[in-house]
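Subgroup meeting minutes
Present: P.N., E.W., G.H.
Scribe: E.W.

1. P.N. recapped why we're keeping a running log of single-chain structure predictions: easier to compare across weeks, and new members can see raw inputs and outputs side by side.
2. G.H. added today's entry (169 aa).
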Amino acid sequence: MSTMKDFEHFFETLIFNSRWLLAPFYFGLLFSIILLMVKFTKEFIHLAKILLHAEGSEIVVGILNLVDVTLVANLLLIMTFVGYETFVSKIDTGDHEDRPDWMGKVSFSGLKIKLFASIVAISGIELLNAFMNVTSFTSEQLAWKVGIHLVFVVSGLFLAITDWFEHDH
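Output recorded in log:
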C-alpha cells in the first residue's frame, strides 16, 4: 500500500512540476515583444521620413499602424503576465511601486475578455486602415474585412455575456 502511495505522490509531484514546461512559451512571448519593438521602430522611422510631404490620410494610416503594433505588444504582455501567474507561478514583485494594479487580479476569464477586446480593436484599426485606402480594395475584399470584424465583435460579445452569466450565477 505504501508503494502505491509513494508512486501516487511521485506522479502528482511530476504533474505539478510540469507546469514549468510552459515557462519557455512565456519567454518566447516576451521575445516577440522585442520583435514588435523592431517593427514599431521601422514604422515610426518610415512615418517620420514621409511626414513633411505625405497626405493627411497617409499620416493617419501610419499612426494607426503604430497603434496596431502597440496593441499587439500590450496584449502579449498581458497574456504573458496572466498566463504565467495562472499556470506556472506567482510573480513576486514585492511592494514594487510600478507593479500594475491589475497584475495578480486578472483571471483566465478576464484574460479571454481582454484578448477579444484587443482583437476587436486590432481588427477595427485594420478596417479603418482599409477604409482610408478604399481605392486599394475591391468591394468583395472590404466586405470580407467588415464580415470578419463583425464576427470578432459578436464572438467577443457572446464571450462577455457567457462570462457574465457564469459569474452572476
